[in-house]
Design goal:
Length: 111
């Protein structure tokens, strides 16, 4: 015959041990139930442009300068093309500066 399996005693827990467990409040329930659909590409571009408008301006200026410089290169105007390529590099640098300053400003405003 088999011997009986020993039973483990039931674990007794006190309220002090379970204090870290918190019952969800109504505010918690509202936060969890709030659903925000993912934003579309256009909505994200508008939001980011509103937050830091100098970056899209810098990107547009860089693109225009690059296009004009390439057009001058195709026409054979090497001096103007070289000047436009230098202006493009400057424009890119200013765009990066605007991006960094915008991020720094947003970080300061969040505090």
């Amino acid at each position: 015959m088999s011997s009986p399996v020993p039973q483990k005693p039931a674990v007794q827990s006190s309220d002090a041990e379970l204090r870290w467990i918190r019952k969800p409040t109504e505010q918690d329930e509202r936060e969890y139930q709030t659903y925000r659909p993912p934003e579309s590409f256009g909505e994200k571009v508008r939001r980011k442009t509103k937050a830091n408008p100098m970056v899209p301006i810098g990107v547009g200026a860089t693109t225009l300068i690059l296009g004009f410089g390439l057009w001058q290169m195709r026409k054979g105007n090497t001096k103007m093309s070289q000047n436009m390529m230098r202006a493009r590099v400057t424009s890119q640098g200013l765009t990066i500066l605007a991006l960094v300053l915008g991020v720094a400003y947003a970080g300061q405003a969040a505090k």
